[in-house]
Amino acid sequence: DAGVIQSPRHEVTEMGQEVTLRCKPISGHNSLFWYRQTMMRGLELLIYFNNNVPIDDSGMPEDRFSAKMPNASFSTLKIQPSEPRDSAVYFCASSPGLGRSFGSGTRLTVV
Amino acid sequence: DQQVKQNSPSLSVQEGRISILNCDYTNSMFDYFLWYKKYPAEGPTFLISISSIKDKNEDGRFTVFLNKSAKHLSLHIVPSQPGDSAVYFCAASGRTGNQFYFGTGTSLTVIP
Asked: HSE of A67 in the Cβ direction (CA atoms, 13 Å)?
């Protein structure tokens, strides 16, 4: 099993640009989570999907953030327009129930 | 507001000694607690967990203690090894496990 796969590993973009982060969960896992890691708040849950349906997006910081899961094997997190304060490491995780399997993360830098 | 708090951002320990990482939580409805370990440039990986019906769970060199009355848990690593150097995240959830609340992490350095 390849684990949770995220791309890109690093993204540097200019303020105002659109950024799309991608995630492929572990096959058979029915829940998918997007987290953001910052020094001040640790790992924050942004949104999670169950069976491809968004269940809780209360952690999404602003309307500039959106997430989709068009099928069981793919999800995207989009930031449009991006701002410097969005700079962080974004993790995707999947789960068959309890527990989480995390991807290696995308380090986003908005300049 | 942080429902799970790790008040020590960093900890240094000599190889062979005990490492104790602490975590406090505010929600008495939490009943499942986990520790994750994270190396640089990698995602967090599951280390050990404990259910609220227990006060101790042991796995090799790693032991997690839960004090429900104090809303406090701790991770003990004995003996500490240089390969244990990583960031450790504490997490808590309710019965459904859908919502995990993570702490801000403690960076452990084990000095050879």
From this structure: 30
B4 to each of A51, A69, A98, B37, how far by Cα in Å? 27, 28, 18, 16
Nearest residue on chain A to B41, alpha-carbon basis? A104
Task: Using a CB–CB cutoff of 8 Å, tell me whether B14 touches chain A.
Answer: no
Interface residue B42 vs chain A (CB under 8 A): yes
| Cβ atoms < 10 Å from Cβ of B9 | 11
- Residue A18, number of CB atoms within 10 A of its CB: 11
Question: How far, in Å, CA of A93 to CA of A32, rounded?
Answer: 6
Q: Which of B10, B30, B38 to mutate to test the interface with A (most CBs of A within 10 A)?
A: B38
What are B27-75's pLDDT values in tens digits? 999 989 999 999 998 999 999 999 999 999 999 999 999 999 999 999 9
